[in-house]
Amino acid sequence: DTGVSQDPRHKITKRGQNVTFRCDPISEHNRLYWYRQTLGQGPEFLTYFQNEAQLEKSRLLSDRFSAERPKGSFSTLEIQRTEQGDSAMYLCASSLAGGPGNEQFFGPGTRLTVL
Amino acid sequence: AQSVTQLGSHVSVSEGALVLLRCNYSSSVPPYLFWYVQYPNQGLQLLLKYTSAATLVKGINGFEAEFKKSETSFHLTKPSAHMSDAAEYFCAVSVRGSGNTGKLIFGQGTTLQVKP
Question: Under a CB-based contact definition with an 8 Å cutoff, are residues A36 and A85 in contact?
C-alpha cells in the first residue's frame, strides 16, 4: 500500500502528558499537511510543510504543539502538556507541489483521547 | 478570507433516490473547490474537484457537481443513491495564486443516510 499512513491510529493519554504522532506521506509528495477534526466538524488546517520547511502555521497551533519534517519525508506532530480540549482526530495529508488545485491524499488519522 | 457553508448537517434519502448535498463558498479570488467523502474510522477520499476546466465536474462513484459562480455554489449530486453512499461528505475550498499553500478550508460536513 503506497498511501498515506499514520501511527498510532488511537492514543489515550492523561491530561498533562506529552504525545507524538507520526505521518508517512506518499513517497514522491513534497507537500504535507496536518489537520485536526473534532466530532461533528470538518477538518481544520494546522500546519503545512513543503519538503522540510514549515511554511504556514494556523493560529490553532498553540505553543504546546510542534511539528517537524526533518528530511522532507515523514513528519511528526507533538503535543506537550495535553489538555482535554486536544481530544480530536489528527489527520495528515500529502500532495505534489505545483498548485493548490492538486489533490491532497489523506491518511486514516490518529484519534487522540485526553482523559 | 475563504469559507464554506454546507446546508444541512444530515440528509436522508431512499435507495435509488436523487442525492443533493449543498455547498456554498466565499472567496475573494477564484477558488478551487473539492468534495471529499469520509467513511467511519477512515481518512478522507476525494470525490471530485473544480479547477476551472469545466463547470460541471464528474467524479467517482457516479457523483457530479456544478460550479455556479453567480450563486457561489458547488452542490454535489448523484442520480440514484446506493446504500454504500452512506457516509460523511465535506466540501472544501482552496485558494489560487502563487505562494498559496494549497491548504483546504472545509465545511462542517453533511451526513448522508440512505434508507432501504
Answer: no
Question: Within the 37-66 window of chain B, which residues sit less than 8 Å (CB to CB) from chain A?
Answer: 41-46, 49, 51
Q: Strands A88-95, A110-114: parallel, antiparallel or unpaired by DSSP?
A: antiparallel
Residue among A7, A69, A106, A110 with most chain B CBs within 10 A, to mutate = A106
Residue with cell 453512499: B85
Does residue B2 carry a pLDDT above 90? no
**Are B108 and A91 an interchain contact pair (Cβ–Cβ within 8 Å)?**
no
Cβ neighbours of residue B37 under 8 Å, at least 6 residues apart? Answer: B44, B45, B47, B87, B88, B89, B90
Looking at the complex, does the CB of residue A102 fall below 8 Å from at least one CB of chain B?
yes
Q: Do A101 and B32 touch (CB under 8 A)?
A: yes
Quote the pLDDT of residue A1. 55
DSSP 3-state assignment of B90?
strand
Mean of the pLDDT values across residues A88-109?
A: 88
Query: What's residue A52's pLDDT?
Result: 93
